[in-house]
């Protein structure tokens, strides 16, 4: 382990930490949250958050202002159950996103779990049109997972816990104790490991973290052990992760026999006693060089923020560096922004500890001295608009620099609220502007290689 460790204080004041030669500052973005479960960096450049009681919100990363979108009425929050993981997916050719959430609900007196897709229309600050994609999954007040992760091929991974039915984790006909892979309409991808089955991997106890390394495409999960062997796993299609027959490594005679017979993938790293591993994210940004090609791992019981350097091929965890242990109490939600900032949600109102007066909080970790390179630094946009000021429903002609790829275009008002999103090519492009109120609007174009171009549009 690394040497970074400070005394536990559930409402400690943010400060700074040294990571190699980099000073990482910690500040509070927002307070008074109730058990944040998921944090995502959304396609609208806002943070998206679920809270276990059922609320979905957007957070302005510049101001910390929280805008609730929906409190889901049939969420059952009891024990560790409630509103859990989320994924936000733009709908091509529209001003809408698909918002996927996993949550526990009660039906016929039984606790269950389902995956639901909502519709978000830019500018409405609301979710609508719920569609159940997957339901009737057995659940308990513990061991229900669940994280969601969108893959580049527009399929979705979903983790499920064993719901305290341990043998179900080895039963391919059960959806518990698994990582599932499904299309965005809930159907089974044609290239899943077993035809007609959502099961991507099996033998999981309670996966609480899920991440993908952009550099290698490899997938990782963080998983609770019983009283021993919390795990971080390298996720490979159709592999077995051992539970309940194997705890941690294949190091006992009975475990070794099971592992050899059942295609078991051993974890990359384990912890005994357990930490209560939770949120997991991949970091590979120049803002904090010592965290490049690292997994960032949170824990609940120990309250650790750990950096786990990976080998170049992503198949080994080289060591564990703890930035802190216990300083901010229980930690669950984590995400990384395109600017290299790390956002962390505390979980001190989850019933397992005494919360501090400002809990729960969203913390921001950043290198404030970092200066983006010329590739990522915003540059002036050569923009010609006819007419300008542009009345509602006008068609504008945009003259842009040559772009290697299509750029994502975002139109925001003077308060930073997004009113439109689309894709634009370089050169001369015709843009049909959406209806909008009078005022000044900012058009931002972002390319996949990190370049950002900006221009202003006036609406009379």
From TrEMBL:
InterPro entries: 6-blade_b-propeller_TolB-like, Glc/Sorbosone_DH, Quinoprot_gluc/sorb_DH_b-prop, Secre_tail. This is Glucose/Sorbosone dehydrogenase domain-containing protein. Gene3D superfamilies: TolB, C-terminal domain. The lineage of its organism: Bacteria, Pseudomonadati, Bacteroidota, Cytophagia, Cytophagales. It comes from Solirubrum puertoriconensis. Residues 34-352 form the Glucose/Sorbosone dehydrogenase domain. SUPFAM superfamilies: Soluble quinoprotein glucose dehydrogenase. NCBIfam families: Por_Secre_tail (TIGR04183).
């Amino acid at each position: 382990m690394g040497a970074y460790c400070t005394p536990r204080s559930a409402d400690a004041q943010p400060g700074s930490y040294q990571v190699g030669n980099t000073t990482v500052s910690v500040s509070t973005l927002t307070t008074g949250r109730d058990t944040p479960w998921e944090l995502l960096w959304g396609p609208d450049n806002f943070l998206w958050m679920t809270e276990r009681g059922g609320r979905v919100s957007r957070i302005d990363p510049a101001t910390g202002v929280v805008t609730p979108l929906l409190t889901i009425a049939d969420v059952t929050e009891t024990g560790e159950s409630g509103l859990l993981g989320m994924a936000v997916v733009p709908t091509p050719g529209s001003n809408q996103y698909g918002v996927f959430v996993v949550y526990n609900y009660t039906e016929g007196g039984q606790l269950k779990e389902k995956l639901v897709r909502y519709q978000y229309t830019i500018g409405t600050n609301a979710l609508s049109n719920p569609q159940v994609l997957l339901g009737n999954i057995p659940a308990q007040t513990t061991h229900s997972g669940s994280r969601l992760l969108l893959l580049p091929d527009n399929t979705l991974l979903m983790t499920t816990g064993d719901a305290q039915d341990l043998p179900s984790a080895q039963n391919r006909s059960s959806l518990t104790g698994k990582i599932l892979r499904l299309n965005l309409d809930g159907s089974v991808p044609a290239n899943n490991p077993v035809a007609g089955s959502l099961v991507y991997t099996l033998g999981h106890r309670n996966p609480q973290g899920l991440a993908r390394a952009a550099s290698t495409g490899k997938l990782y999960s963080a998983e609770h052990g019983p009283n021993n062997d919390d795990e971080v796993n390298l996720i490979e299609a159709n592999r077995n992760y051992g539970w309940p027959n194997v705890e941690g490594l294949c190091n006992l005679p009975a475990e070794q026999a099971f592992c050899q017979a059942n295609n078991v993938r051993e974890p990359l790293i384990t912890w005994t006693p357990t930490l209560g591993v939770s949120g997991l994210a991949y970091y590979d940004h120049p803002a904090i060089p010592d965290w490049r090609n690292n997994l960032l791992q949170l824990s609940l019981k120990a309250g650790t923020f750990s950096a786990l350097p990976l080998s170049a091929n992503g198949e080994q965890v080289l060591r564990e560096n703890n930035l802190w242990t216990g300083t901010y109490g229980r930690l669950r939600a984590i995400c990384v922004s395109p600017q290299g900032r790390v956002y962390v949600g505390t979980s001190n109102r989850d019933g397992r500890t005494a919360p501090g007066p400002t809990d729960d909080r969203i913390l921001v970790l950043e290198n404030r001295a970092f200066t983006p390179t010329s590739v990522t630094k915003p540059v002036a946009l050569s923009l010609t608009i006819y007419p300008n000021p542009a009345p509602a429903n006008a068609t504008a002609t945009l003259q842009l620099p040559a772009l290697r790829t299509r750029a994502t275009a975002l139109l925001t008002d003077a308060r930073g609220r997004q009113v439109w999103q689309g894709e634009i090519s370089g050169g001369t492009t015709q843009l049909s502007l959406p209806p909008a109120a009078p005022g000044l609007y900012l058009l931002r174009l972002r390319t996949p290689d990190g370049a950002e171009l900006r221009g202003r549009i006036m609406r009379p």
